[in-house]
Amino acid sequence: xxxxxxxxxxxxxxxxxxxxxxxxxxxxxxxxxxxxxxxxxxxxxxxxxxxxxxxxxxxxxxxxxxxxxxxxxxxxxxxxxxxxxxxxxxxxxxxxxxxxxxxxxxxxxxxxxxxxxxxxxxxxxxxxxxxxxxxxxxxxxxxxxxxxxxxxxxxxxxxxxxxxxxxxxxxxxxxxxxxxxxxxxxxxxxxxxxxxxxxxxxxxxxxxxxxxxxxxxxxxxxxxxxxxxxxxxxxxxxxxxxxxxxxxxxxxxxxxxxxxxxxxxxxxxxxxxxxxxxxxxxxxxxxxxxxxxx
Length: 294
Description:
12 helices, mainly alpha
């Protein structure tokens, strides 16, 4: 059940990426897309809170931590959306899979975790896959777009560490709500500068970006209630299938041959990292609770 829910959520995010690209190509400014992505989510989150216990469900005792998470999140969202705009969907999606690789590196720096041969080997394999796809100097895809996508993956990894910390005290609804609210407040002055009158089609695209983004965010979060991260995260790689399909349907673009050589390395790296972290988590639990194994 958890795998199916996660798969459904990933489908929502993949469709959001396609709508972002369509909106950008229609002339909507990237920063306006970021604003409406969160502005559409905000009333949905408030409505859900009211329907399930009241606005008190959105309270937090850690406003400063949420503020830091919002800064990281806004930067990450701009980079992520920028990668979708600058690259073919399949390439942007695949480079985004490198987030677990950056998470390993950041865990050694920020969390002082000890990383062994398995995860370091996965990191090297993942970066080899990125080089194969990006083909620096080869001109198969824009190098600046590849760098933006790598920046987005780095921010996703950094945000995941922050959310792990916030998750100790706040529920997912609270984390998502305060990020949406902060994004709207920060981006509103920017919107007043970059906004131009939108056509009916553009407004529908903005609505679609917000709805599909909320759809994806809700379902991947719900999936974690029914399955472990190390189990359900495998479904995230299905987004490459959706990205390839949407790239062909909406933009008549198919991935370069290099993608099919580099993507398996990046995906394998992510799976190895998730598997190894699950093994280490079980070992730590067994060491801390010796009676549980008897």
